Amino acid sequence: WAKADGKARWTLFDPERNEHRMTRQALSRTLRQAVERGEFVLDYQPLVALDSGELRGVEALVRWEHPHFGRLAPNRFIGLAEEDGSIVQLGRWVLAESCRQARAWQQAFPDAPLVVSVNVAVRQVWDSDLVADVAAILRETGLPPRLLQLELTESAVMGSAGRPLQALHALHEMGVRIAIDDFGTGYSNLAYMSRLPVSALKLDGSFVQGFRSAEHPNPADETIVEALVDLAHRLGLTVTAECVENAEQAERLRRIGCDTGQGWHYSRPVGADVISGLLA
Ligand code: C2E
Ligand code: MG
Ligand code: MG
Ligand code: MG
C-alpha cells in the first residue's frame, strides 16, 4: 500500500530492519485490540523559534509498543488504521493523551506556554465527530484551545466542501489552531488555503533537504521557500520548516524569515519526561 505521492505508508516486511512479517489481516485485528489494551505511546518533537531558539511547541507522534514486534513507527500502521477505520479510535486517544499532557505542562510551567500539535487523519474529519471529540477533550482536560494545534494534510482539506469545511470553521471558532502538514507535497494551493481558517503551514521536509549543499550548489528550493514564507506571512500564516537537520539549514531558514523549525538539529522525537526536563 502506497500513498498517492509515492511515499510508502507501511510495509509488510522491512528487510533492512529485519522485522517480522505480519499479514495485513493479523495487523488489522491486533490494531483494534491495541487501542483497547493501551499499547500506544506518544513521543514529542520540539518546534523551536528560529530567531530566539525558544521552545514554542511540540508535535505529538504516535508509536505502537507491539508486544511481539517491539516499537513500531507510525508509517507501519497509520495507513492501515486509516483503511480499516481504527484510526478514528486511535486518533481520539492521541488527541486526549496529547491534551492531557499539554495541560499538565501548562500547570507545571505556566510561564512557558507550549502548543501541542496533533496529527489528524483525513478519515477523522470525515467519519467521526471530530468537533464534538475536540470540544469534549478540551473540557475534560481543561486545556485552553489556543494551546492545541491540529495538523491536517492538504489532501484532507482540498476541495473540502461540506462536512470537513464546517469542521474546520467550528474548530477555528473554538480557538483551536489549524496547520497544514507536509505543505508542498500536494496541491500547494496557497490561495485556497488562505480562504480556509488555517493558522500555520508546515513546509515538507523535502524543501529543506533540497537546500544548497556540495551536491546542489544552486537549488531552487531555497528560492521557493523564501517566496512561500513571504506569501504565507502576507496571508497571516506562520510557517514551520520540517526536517531541519543541521545548523546551516537552521540559519538559512532564519534569514529567510521562517518562524519555527522542527528536526533532528533541535531534537529527535522524545518522551514527555524529556520535554518536561527542557521546560524545567
Ligand atoms: P509528520 O507529521 O510529517 O511528522 C514528522 C515526521 O518527521 C516524524 O516521523 C518525525 O520523526 C520525522 N522527523 C522529524 N525531524 C526529522 C529530521 O530532521 N529528519 C528526518 N529525516 N525526519 C524527521 P514519524 O514520527 O515516523 O511520523 C511519521 C508520520 O506519521 C507523521 O509525519 C504523521 O504523518 C504520521 N503520524 C504520526 N503520529 C500520528 C498520529 O497520531 N495520527 C496520525 N493520523 N498520523 C500520525
Ligand atoms: Mg505532522
Ligand atoms: Mg509533517
Ligand atoms: Mg513530513
UniProtKB/TrEMBL annotation:
Taxonomic superkingdom: Bacteria
Annotated ranges, domain EAL: 24-280
Membrane-spanning segments: none
Name of the protein described by the UniProt record: EAL domain-containing protein
Organism (species): Actinacidiphila polyblastidii
Boundaries of the shown chain within the full protein: 315 to 594 of 594
